[in-house]
Amino acid sequence: MAPVQQILFVDGWASAVRVRRAVGWFARARGVWPDRRWPASQALLLPGCRSIHTCGLARPLDVVFTDEEGRVLVVHRAVPPWRVRSEPAACATWEFAAGVSARLGIVRGGRLNVRRMRGATLVEFMLAAMLVVFPMVFVTLELARLIVTSHALQHAVNDTAREAGFGAPSGVGLRQSLAYGLLPLFLPSDPAAALAPRPAGPAELEIEPGVAALAVAYRETFRPDLLDVRLETPEGGIADPGFGAIDWPEGGGAWRLRVRYCRELIFPLARQLISGVARWRNGSPFEQACLARERVPIEAWAMVLRPRWEPRSLPGDLPTPQPPGPLPIPLPTPDLPPYPVPPAPINPPITPEITPEVSL
């Protein structure tokens, strides 16, 4: 007995009774059995049936026989169990719960037929989609955005902690580094649209997508109500760097950089659902204020390791250049006599004599 999406029409008027058609020999033989309570909003149609029985039933039934055009031939109301009813001229048999035929106004000479309610199925689907399917889809997409934001925030915090370990950044420097780390969250989702040529316009109105995204990242990270930065000291204390300079100890050490960021929810239905569920748990005032704006707080942390710098020379290192010192002061030199001229040689050099050649 397979259920079908059909509804009963009595004399051309739609009723609230759904019709189930008995298909096959077994379904026709058992009828409404073993349903102990046949619902009043349901009817059973047995096509090509002229005789029925109520053996094994616990409650009475209303039985209606109709011809091939759906005209009512006989109406048997409240047939008790273990009875048999038949009509030789019938082409179909209808079975209702006791009292339903009278309530629907089914009498001899009336007309019964069924129609497929396509619009009703569409309306039911739309209601189910609005109440179940659409919220689940939006919640899934919103959770995916939050997971991406969590990964981006963790990478940004790692880069900021590394920069804080090798430099001396202030509170402004920490937030600037976080803004650059969160920049991928605010870039255009379509790279082709971001790189497409834009129409010519005034020079002061042309803003690059990357510059606009960086401006949004700065706006998000420099608001204390959207981004909370904390430094946990080794002694267990919590320091708020704020926007000023940070007093880093000269001896080095390890600190925990903890950042909480309020991510905006954009999908309808999921925005109210996620923020409403998250409010049930007891959170800090920052988290409660974040949820009140229909945002979700996301937390990430990293260790800031600041070593103590001690100059050491290792084999193979180049010598450290020393800063130039003061120029040396020239010392006074005594007046020395001029260098003596060597005397002339005693024996002058011998020049060879040239004898004129005499020809005989």
- What is the number of strand segments? 13
Structural class comes to alpha+beta
Element-by-element helix/strand order = EEHEEEEEEHEHHHHEEEHHE
Unreliably modeled segments: none
Number of helix segments?
8
- How much of the residues is beta strand, in percent? 15-25%
Residue share in helices? 25-40%
How many domain modules? 2
Q: Strands of the biggest beta sheet: in what spatial order? A: 6-5-8-3-2-1-9
> Span between N and C termini?
165 Å
For the CA atoms, what is the radius of gyration? 49 Å
In short:
The protein is of the alpha+beta class. The chain has helices at 25-30, 100-104, 118-166, 171-181, 191-195, 209-221, 270-278, 285-292; strands at 2-10, 13-21, 42-47, 51-53, 61-66, 72-79, 84-86, 92-97, 112-116, 227-232, 238-239, 253-264, 295-306. Strand 5 (61-66) and strand 6 form a beta hairpin.
Description:
Strands 6-5-8-3-2-1-9 form a seven-stranded mixed sheet. Strands 11-10-12-13 form a four-stranded antiparallel sheet, sandwiched between helices. Strands 4-7 form a two-stranded antiparallel ribbon. Strand 10 (227-232) and strand 11 form a beta hairpin. It has 360 residues and is α+β, with helices and mostly antiparallel strands. It starts with a strand and ends in a 54-residue tail after the last strand. The mean pLDDT is 80. The protein has helices at 25-30, 100-104, 118-166, 171-181, 191-195, 209-221, 270-278, 285-292, and strands at residues 2-10, 13-21, 42-47, 51-53, 61-66, 72-79, 84-86, 92-97, 112-116, 227-232, 238-239, 253-264, 295-306. The protein folds into two domains: 2-116, Protein of unknown function DUF192 (Jelly Rolls, Sandwich); 135-188 and 209-306. The longest helix has 49 residues, at 118-166. Helix 3 (118-166) crosses helix 7 and helix 4 (171-181) packs across helix 6.
